[in-house]
TrEMBL record:
Transmembrane segments: none annotated. Residues 10-78 form the Transcription regulator PadR N-terminal domain. It holds the Pfam family Vir_act_alpha_C. It comes from Prauserella sediminis. This is DNA-binding PadR family transcriptional regulator. Residues 92-168 form the Transcription regulator PadR C-terminal domain. Keywords: Coiled coil, DNA-binding. One of its GO terms (molecular function) is DNA binding. The keyword Coiled coil applies. It comes from the Bacteria.
Length: 183
């Protein structure tokens, strides 16, 4: 049975242990959150569909109405089929690229602030990833290598984004004023 990437990811997480919808979203955020996002509402819709299709099942309601889900044998088969299939092409969405596309319509001082904000965000994520790298170094679980590999892509992406931000004014042929905190 073919499943979507989101459903496949949820089944993959459930193949490790039973979790609530909330725990699934948090685990997905920890592992691949900056490259593949799953919203709580989306996770619960997918979990309901997986349960209807017999790919997962839930326990009776726990505290605050939460249910713990676990993968079924059919769900494990669907997950293994999905994870071994050829992934679709990437669909990279970087909202700041839309800003860059229309940079000529932004006052230079404001554009400098926007670049500085992006630089701060990417620096914070890079620092977060590098801390996580240390934590994952000792992960010898079956999924440890995949977690480290995913993290290395994140580190490489953040470094590339920072280098691109440094070069951005030259690409646009503009001379930006220094951000206010560097004056």
């Amino acid at each position: 049975m073919a499943v979507s990437a989101t459903a496949g990811a949820l089944l993959g997480l459930l193949s490790e242990k039973p979790m609530t919808g909330w725990e699934l979203v948090e685990e997905a955020r920890n592992r691949v959150g900056n490259f593949w996002t799953i919203q709580h509402s989306q996770a619960y819709r997918e979990l309901a569909a997986l349960e209807r299709e017999g790919l997962s099942e839930s326990t009776k309601e726990e505290v605050r109405g939460r249910r713990r889900y676990r993968i079924t044998d059919a769900g494990r088969d669907a997950y293994l089929e999905w994870v071994a299939s050829t992934p679709k092409d990437e669909n990279v969405r970087v909202p700041f690229l839309l800003t860059v596309a229309f940079a000529a319509d932004i006052p230079p001082g404001r554009f400098a602030e926007l670049i500085e904000d992006q630089r701060r965000r990417h620096t914070e994520r890079l620092e977060q990833y590098e801390r996580l790298r240390g934590e994952l170094a000792a992960d010898d679980s079956p999924h440890g290598g995949g977690r480290r590999a995913t993290l290395e892509l994140g580190i490489g992406y953040e470094r590339a984004a920072l280098a691109w931000l440094d070069e951005l004014p030259a690409h646009l042929g503009i001379d930006l004023p220094a951000p206010p905190n560097e004056v």
